[in-house]
Design a protein that fits this description.
Layout: H1 2-9, H2 24-35, E1 46-50, H3 54-63, H4 69-72, E2 75-82, H5 87-101, H6 109-120, H7 124-148, E3 152-156, H8 161-168, E4 175-184, H9 202-205
Antiparallel strand pairs: 1-2, 2-4, 3-4
């Protein structure tokens, strides 16, 4: 099974080869993989920033514990969850659904009302945690698609969101930096690529009830 072999190949790359760049065609595939990711209700309550300006990357690096991948990677993505997600965003999703499937709004009005009832009644803090969790589903698609293309990805929680929010002016956009993903190719000097993958045995990970 190619998927299993891809998972055995991939790892959280500690040192990227700054001289190697992901092609536009391959990056397009990675973006489409993220776009097609599953999300609760299909709402995709996040946006992804592609940080192409090297100066902005240099600003982010200290806020990301000075990890070298921030500046050495071919591409750098910041996954930002939408804060205070509510009726406005749900209505935008429904409009997209109606236009995409070419159906009358009345056909999905019940679904729209259901989502509004279930989501907007939650406390803001709960909704913010929920939208942040959704970015991890999108990251999973990125990791899997990249592994198939033999492109390395380093997912990062090791950064200070408040500082990244300030650098990218996310607070002004009602967004929060949830995850960072550095995309590129492993350096030959990265010794961790040769380490054995450490995981729990199946009989400890899975419990039959």
């Amino acid at each position: 099974m190619n998927f299993i072999n891809d998972q055995k190949w991939r790892y959280a790359t500690k040192k990227m080869d700054a001289s190697k760049k992901v092609s536009d065609a391959d990056f397009q595939l990675l973006m489409e993989a993220i776009q097609l990711s599953t999300s609760s209700y299909g709402l995709q309550p996040y946006v992804i920033f592609n940080i192409v300006d090297p100066e902005i990357r240099k600003q982010i690096q200290p806020a990301a514990w000075n990890q070298s991948q921030i500046v050495d990677a071919s591409h750098l993505l910041v996954f930002a969850n939408i804060l205070d997600f509510g009726a406005k965003e749900i209505e935008a999703y429904i409009q997209n659904l109606v236009e995409t499937r070419q159906i009358p709004h009345e056909a999905v009005k019940g679904y729209e009302d259901f989502m509004k009832m279930k989501i907007t009644e939650l406390p803001k803090e709960t909704r913010d945690i929920w939208t942040s969790k959704q970015t991890y589903l999108a990251l999973g698609n990125l990791l899997n698609a990249a592994a198939e293309l033999k492109i390395d990805v380093t997912p990062m929680e090791g950064f200070e969101p408040e500082k990244v929010n300030e650098i990218l002016k996310l607070n002004e956009q009602n967004l929060n930096a949830s995850l960072i993903a550095a995309i590129g190719y492993r350096s030959e000097e990265d010794a961790t690529q040769h380490y054995a993958k450490v995981r729990k045995p199946l009989n400890q990970l899975f419990i039959n009830i």
